[in-house]
Write a structure and sequence with these properties.
Elements (H helix, E strand, L loop, with lengths): L1 H10 L6 E6 L1 H12 L11 H4 L9 H23 L6 H29 L6 H4 L8 H25 L3 E6 L13 H6 L8 H20 L3 E4 L21 H21 L7
Parallel strand pairs: 1-2, 2-3
């Protein structure tokens, strides 16, 4: 996504001094855990085979109807909320936030149900793209890491061509073994033993670290932050999908800033920058 987004912004005339890319989890979890299992091209966006289905399969009409109804409710409610004189009150905003969170969860559940239903059905090219050449999850993992590495390398080269300083950090994740001592609160709210992504992270993150070394050898300013929380005993993770609280965000931001500063001190930008 970052690679194609940058190309789009440059096409539209945007100018950047510095590009900071922080990733790792989605590039493995969604690529292997969703695209591969739904026979969708590994380099395609998440849920591509669902997003492109404008025509509803009669077998999915009941689920699709629920999806459209909730989307309609959200849109109507949003218009009403923007016009309501109560929108200035924190209690109203909290109520809206809680309702929006509920709808978001329902939409996610419905999309997951549709993905599960269609996973084993043969799909048209417009919905799936070229089917992954990988036959096993292990092969898909290897290909996902290759795509991740190549994307960063192309971002690096594209930024060089446009005079942009590019920095790439690999984010931490609670399912990466030994990366953080989890608190009781984290184990209850942010660690799911049955997570479909847990074993993907456990297997894939060592491969990301190895690929990160190769990126650094190729001249990319690549930083491994996967063990940033290794000695942090306070609660940082807030859900099973690697999102962190304010303190976690501060630690990541401080680490990235330090890496950028140290990297620029060792390898300054050209004088014309």
């Amino acid at each position: 996504q970052a690679l194609f987004a940058l190309n789009y912004y440059l096409l539209m005339g945007a100018e950047f001094d510095l590009l900071l890319n922080l990733d790792g989890f989605n590039e493995l979890a969604l690529t292997v855990g969703e695209n591969f299992l739904s026979h969708t091209a590994l380099e395609y966006p998440q849920g591509w085979n669902v997003r492109t289905r404008e025509l509803v399969d009669p077998r999915d009409a009941d689920v699709s109807l629920r999806l459209f109804e909730i989307r309609g409710l959200r849109q109507r409610a949003a218009r009403i909320a923007l016009q309501s004189p109560l929108r200035i009150f924190p209690s109203y905003q909290l109520w809206w936030h809680l309702r929006e969170e509920r709808w978001h969860a329902e939409l996610l559940a419905i999309q997951t149900e549709l993905l599960t239903r269609r996973r084993d059905r043969p799909g048209a090219f417009i919905h799936t793209g070229p089917h992954p050449p990988a036959k096993t999850e292990e092969e898909a993992m290897t290909e996902a890491v290759r795509i991740w590495k190549q994307s960063s390398l192309h971002l690096h080269r594209l930024c060089q061509a446009h005079g942009i300083a590019y920095f790439h950090g690999t984010q931490p994740n609670q399912y990466d073994t030994g990366s953080k001592p989890l608190t009781d609160e984290e184990r209850e709210n942010a660690y799911w033993d049955q997570s479909p992504y847990g074993h993907i992270v456990g297997t894939g993150y060592p491969l990301l670290r190895s690929a990160g070394t190769e990126l650094r050898d190729a001249g990319v300013r690549q930083f491994d932050l996967t063990h940033l929380f290794e000695n942090v005993e306070e609660t940082l993770y807030i859900d099973p999908y690697c999102h962190v609280n304010l303190r976690g965000s501060e630690l990541i931001a401080e680490s990235l800033a330090r890496h950028v500063q140290e990297s620029l001190a060792m390898h300054p930008l050209p004088d014309n920058r």
